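Give me the 3D structure for protein acetyllysine N-acetyltransferase.
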Amino acid sequence: MKENELSYQARVHHLVQLIKESGKTVALTGAGASTESGIPDFRSQDSGLWNQVDPQKSVSIRALKKDPQSFYRFNFQWWDVCLQAKPNACHHSLARLEEQGWLLGVITQNIDGLHQRAGSQRVWEVHGHLRSCHCLHCGRMFDLARLKVEYHCTCGGLLRPDVVLFGDAMPEDYYTAEQVLSGCQLLLVIGSSLQVQPVAGLPRLARRVVIINHDPTPWDESAELVFRESAGQVLADVVKQLGNNTGPYYTG
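Predicted structure for protein acetyllysine N-acetyltransferase (252 residues):
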C-alpha cells in the first residue's frame, strides 16, 4: 500500500515521525493556507481568482502604469479582505511548530501578513507584502494606507505597493529563501498549487516533500505524503501529537 493510500490518522502519524526525524524542516505556504481566513485563492479549479480575471490586465506593473485608478480600485477589493482577515488554525499551528523548535520558518507566497500576526518570527515573503508602498521615481516609502487617498508621491511620482506584480523581478526574500532551503530535509508545502515559477521549483531543494493542498500539484507523485484535507486540521493534529516536546530549533 502506498503511503498516500493510508488512512488520515496514519498519514498524520507518519508526518509527525518525519518532522521528528528531520534536522531541518521548512514550510512553504500559498493562497490555500489563508482560504480558511476568508481570503480567496487564485488557481483552484472552481473558485480561483485568476479564473475570473486576467492578471496581466489587472495585477501587473503594466496595468498600474497604464491606469493607476482602475488598478487600485480593482486590487483593493481583495487587498482589503487580506488586511481585515485573521489568522486561522494553519497560521497558528505553524507559529507553534516554530516556537517549539520543530520548524525553522515559513516561506510564503502570500501577501496578507497572517503568519506574522499568528506569531511566526521567521517569514520570507517571496511575493512581497501589503504593509507599505514606495515611489517609482524617488523611492520614498509610505504606509499602504496612503494609496486609499493618493497614489502619487509628494515628488509627483507614481506609488506602487510592495507586492510582486506580474512583470516584476523577484524580491530579495526569494533568493534568501533559496539559501534557507539549503540542506532542508523536509519541506511542508501548504496550500500552494506549485504552478507559479520560480517558487514552483523550490521543492527540488528539499530532500523530502509533503503536500497539503486540496487540488493536485505537479509534485504529488514524488511527495512523501499528500493530504487533501484542511491545512488547519492537519497541522493542528500534528501539533497535538507532538505535544510539549521540543525540536532541534528550540531556544527556550
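The first helix runs from residue 8 to 21. Let me know if you want a second pass.
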